[in-house]
């Protein structure tokens, strides 16, 4: 595998593109939104600068990496050996994307999804080659976090999963296999970090800043509300809703009305300038 395409250049796409290009791959970064694409390029350049200042990358390596990077909002240019989608957490939109990607790529191309919660089996259903769809789930911030979950859907070939596993490891990540079960491993365990904290807030036990302060004082880098703002409040809400449904509406996964209200208001966290906290200058 030489050529990688990252579809969706938002919170996750940029970090994954950075990790891929610095590992030696040619990388196409695509987003349908030109402003997001422009911001992604700015963010990736900032990561190069930070890497240079920390002595992790040289000027020559940066020049080489930049020559291997291509930013585009032209869908027909997404042609690669390995395509990873990091678009909105909505089943229908992901399915439509893969159908269109399948039509313009060779049958050998691997289609990977960074979904946090949607079953790989559902995403691949109806495609011409569902055997080449695999879950490759990164964590935020993707250029730093080591763990990557590799998920085989019911139709995924073992060889495809193995190639995805090796690709993730070639990015200097630690890949682990997970079953195609709701939330895979990490999101299933971590869901209660958010859901229970939101319940504490709903019940007026205390305010969100106190919950964050308390959790951070125990050694967590970020409390649940700061972390939801980093992840994207609407993305986190979609993941909880999807898991709630997949676990047969088990109340322990019930999405919070406080979180829903933030989503409705467009308070999506850092990326929108406001979430639980405000980020406006
Ligand atoms: N945010 C996180 O912490 C996190 C962590 C792990 C996995 N994920 C998963 O990664 C995926 C992306 O999440 P994100 O937080 O980066 O989202 P985001 O909203 O920051 O970015 C998504 C991008 O996809 C683009 N997009 C939407 N529809 C598209 C389409 N049809 N074609 C091309 N581009 C399209 C949007 O313009 C947007 O820029 C989701 O599936 C999410 O569950 C997110």
Summarize the structure.
This protein is 47% helix and 14% strand. It has helices spanning 11-22, 34-53, 59-68, 91-104, 120-124, 158-170, 186-202, 208-217, 224-231, 233-246, 257-265; strands at 3-7, 26-30, 69-72, 82-85, 110-113, 133-137, 147-152, 174-178.
Mind explaining what this structure looks like?
The chain contains 11 helices and 8 strands. It is of the alpha/beta class and 281 residues long. It has 2 domains: 3-178, 3-Layer(aba) Sandwich (Rossmann fold), CATH 3.40.50.720; 187-271, Orthogonal Bundle (N-(1-d-carboxylethyl)-l-norvaline Dehydrogenase, domain 2). Helix 1 (11-22) crosses helix 2 (34-53). The termini are far apart. Bound molecules: nicotinamide-adenine-dinucleotide (NAD). Nicotinamide-adenine-dinucleotide is lined by residues 7-13, 31-33, 36, 86-89, 93, 97, 114-116, 137-140, 231-232, 235, 239, 271.
Question: SSE layout and pairings?
Answer:
Blueprint: E1 3-7, H1 11-22, E2 26-30, H2 34-53, H3 59-68, E3 69-72, E4 82-85, H4 91-104, E5 110-113, H5 120-124, E6 133-137, E7 147-152, H6 158-170, E8 174-178, H7 186-202, H8 208-217, H9 224-231, H10 233-246, H11 257-265
Parallel strand pairs: 1-2, 1-4, 2-3, 4-5, 5-6, 7-8
Antiparallel strand pairs: 6-7
Bound molecules: nicotinamide-adenine-dinucleotide.
Roughly what fraction of the amino acids lie in strands? 5-15%
Shape designation: globular
Could you tell me the CATH topology label of the largest domain: Rossmann fold
List the domain count as a whole number: 2
Report mean pLDDT, rounded to a whole number: 97
> Quick one: biggest sheet?
8 strands, mixed
Enumerate the spans where pLDDT stays under 50 for 5 or more consecutive residues: none
Q: Which value, in Å, is the CA radius of gyration? A: 19 Å
Query: Ends: how far apart?
Result: 43 Å
């Amino acid at each position: 595998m030489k050529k990688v395409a990252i579809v969706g250049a938002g919170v996750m796409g940029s970090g994954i593109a950075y990790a891929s290009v610095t590992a030696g791959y040619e990388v196409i970064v695509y987003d349908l939104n030109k402003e997001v694409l422009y911001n992604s390029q700015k963010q990736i350049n900032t990561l190069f600068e930070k890497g240079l200042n920390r002595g992790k990358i040289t000027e020559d390596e940066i020049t080489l990496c930049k020559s291997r990077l291509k930013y585009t909002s032209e869908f027909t240019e997404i042609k690669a050996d390995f395509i990873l989608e990091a678009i909105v957490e909505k089943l229908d939109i992901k399915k439509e994307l893969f159908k269109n990607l399948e039509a313009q790529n060779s049958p050998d191309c691997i289609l990977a999804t960074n979904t946090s919660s949607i079953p790989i089996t559902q995403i691949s259903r109806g495609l011409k080659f569902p055997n080449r769809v695999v879950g490759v789930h990164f964590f935020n911030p993707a250029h730093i976090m080591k763990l990557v979950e590799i998920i085989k859907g019911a139709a995924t070939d073992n060889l495809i999963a193995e190639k995805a596993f090796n690709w993730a490891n070639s990015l200097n990540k630690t890949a682990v296999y997970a079953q195609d079960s709701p939330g895979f491993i990490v999101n299933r365990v971590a869901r209660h970090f958010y859901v229970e904290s939101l319940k504490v807030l709903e019940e007026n036990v205390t305010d969100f800043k106190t919950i964050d302060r308390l959790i951070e004082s125990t050694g967590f880098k970020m409390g649940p509300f700061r972390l939801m703002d980093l992840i994207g409040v609407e993305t986190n809400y979609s993941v909880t809703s999807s898991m709630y449904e997949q676990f047969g509406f088990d109340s322990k996964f019930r999405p919070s009305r406080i979180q829903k209200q933030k989503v409705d208001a467009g308070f999506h966290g850092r990326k929108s300038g406001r979430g639980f906290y405000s980020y406006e200058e």
